[in-house]
Amino acid sequence: MKKLNLVTLILFLMVIAASGADLKKNYIGANLGIFNPAGDISEYDTGTNFGIYYQRKFSDFLGLRFEISGHNTEYNYSIYGYDAKDEINTTAFETSVILQNTYQKFTPYVGLGFGSYVNEIKISLDGDEVYSDTGTALGVVIQAGLLFDITNNFYIGGNFKIFTNNQEIEYTSETLQLGGYKTNIEAGFKF
To answer: Is residue 25 predicted with pLDDT exceeding 60?
Structure first.
C-alpha cells in the first residue's frame, strides 16, 4: 500500500512538473475592496474587505486558489429611544478551482469553490454591548476577475466575488444569511 501511495505521489508530481515548462505557476497576491451585504443583512452598510491569497496553476487553464480575507459591516438604527448598532466582522477561509487563460498581458479567470467563515456578531445600545456571538458557517463561492501583467512577475487586476454564509444564531433556531458580494482590486507577483 505504501508503494502504491509513493507511486501515485510521484506520478502526480510529474504531471505538475510537465504542465508547462515556461509557465509562471505560483501567484501570491492581496486584494482590497468593498463588501456589499445581501440576504438577511442587505440593509446593512457597505463594508471593507481585505484579503491575501496563494494560487497554484496546474496547467495553462486550471488552478487552485486559497484565500484568507476579512470583511465587516454595520447597521445603525433607533429602538425605544436608544441608538442601536449591529456589527458583523467575518474572517473567511476560501478555496476555489480557477479556470483562466492568458491573452498577451491579460488573464481573465472564473472560479468556483467553498468557504469556511468565522462570524462575530455584536449588538450595542447607546454604546454598551448587549449581545455578542461568534460562530462558524460554510458557504459557496463564485468569482470572476481580470489580471494585467505589468512585468513578467508583477500583476494588477480586479475581482468580483459572490458568496453564501449561513450562520446559526445562539439561543434561537434562526439561521441568518450573512453573505453578499465583494468587489476588489488586486495586485501580486508570480513565480
So the answer is: yes
